[in-house]
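Example for reference:
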Amino acid sequence: MSGLDNVDSLSHDDFRCQVLDRLKLLLDHLPRQLPLMTADDSVFSTFLVFRIDPDLLEKTGCEVSALSEQLKGIFRWKTQTTGDGVIAIEERGDPICAMHKVLAEFWECHPQNNVLQKWIFDILKGVEKAYHIHNATVCHHVS
């Protein structure tokens, strides 16, 4: 897996390179064993034209908190509290790849938000686990 144990200690540039850039690379090349999903059948379709849910924004009063609630809905909130606690990545395709752009844009606006950093890191761990499960090569360098 990533070997990044303490995401909190990464500088802004290191987080971008070691976490966000790696996430993009891995999402763009998910193992072929995962089903290829389209906008019509993906749980990640919301990322293709993402908007914060205005009701969640009003309820939470914070963009990152509203995003977090939306991510809980997409990933099912129990994911991180059951089994090994790693988010399951069970598909590949444009919708899941679009998630990176949304997360990166939020992170650029809120780079010090620990909740957002944890979501990004946890999603990265889930993507890495998908590579491990399918015995696929995990790329270590962005070319």
Remarks:
- The mean pLDDT is 88.
- The two ends are 19 Å apart (CA to CA).
- The first helix runs from residue 12 to 28.
- The helical segments are 12-28, 54-60, 63-75, 94-109, 114-133.
